[in-house]
Design a protein that fits this description.
Blueprint: H1 3-37, H2 40-70, H3 75-107, H4 119-140, H5 143-173, H6 178-210
């Protein structure tokens, strides 16, 4: 395969990855919307459309395999392709957590919220911003930005600890809140895990640019 054609296919792979990232961002945003507004139709649509994210992951991975098979790529090309497949895996897992949140919306559909949902939407906005910025740093090969984004994960962790404490106290004070409060704890944990996956994208960006594998989730 001529080099120009190879580069064109590699660029197409990156474009597909960004499209998938945009889909995942939207799924996460909508999952929080469904929870806050008790929107069962929206929750179901998130569950139903998750297959689109899964299909896109498969499509990108198949393109990556074909790229490797069609030409003996340079070491830098292999690293590029390998990084892309790792990032789409993280994106797919984020989308799975959006589905998990949508399912919780359906579980507590008949309950009055035991507390105002303020911190969960705030976590959702932070997580969404992390994903977008992580993908931007990947596209731009911006290592400094990748390191900076990871600091937001600390903010997510701090909110999670705060909400965890509040909900535990709520459950101890009123046992009738246990079921719903536990579900909200799950939501917070899913958002915290999504933030970890965004951090993974930053790690893969650093690997792509430097060849160095580091762990920022510490």
């Amino acid at each position: 395969m001529p080099r120009k054609v190879f580069d064109s296919h590699l660029e197409e792979l990156h474009v597909d990855l960004l499209k998938m990232g945009s889909m995942v961002e939207k799924q996460i945003y909508l999952s929080i919307e469904s929870l806050v507004n008790k929107d069962l139709e929206l929750a179901q649509s998130i569950i139903d459309t998750d297959i689109n994210v899964n299909n896109m992951q498969k499509e990108i991975e198949n393109k990556a395999i074909r790229l490797i098979a069609m030409q003996q790529p340079l070491a830098v090309d292999l690293r590029n392709i390998f990084t892309a497949t790792k990032i789409v895996t993280d994106l797919e897992r984020m989308a799975d957590h959006a589905v998990d949140i949508a399912k919780i919306t359906k579980k507590i559909k008949n309950d009055t919220h035991v507390k105002m949902l303020v911190d969960i939407p705030r976590m959702g906005e932070l997580v969404k911003a992390m994903i977008k910025e992580a993908l931007d740093s990947y596209v731009e090969g911006d290592i400094e930005r990748a390191y900076e984004i990871c600091k937001k994960d600390d903010e997510i962790d701090a909110i999670y600890r705060q909400v965890f404490s509040e909900l535990i106290l709520l459950m101890m004070d009123n046992p009738k809140t246990i079921n719903q409060a536990a579900q909200f704890l799950f939501v917070c944990k899913y958002l915290e895990r999504i933030a970890d996956h965004a951090t993974n994208i930053c790690e893969w960006t650093i690997y792509l640019e430097t060849g160095e594998q580091i762990d920022l989730n510490v």
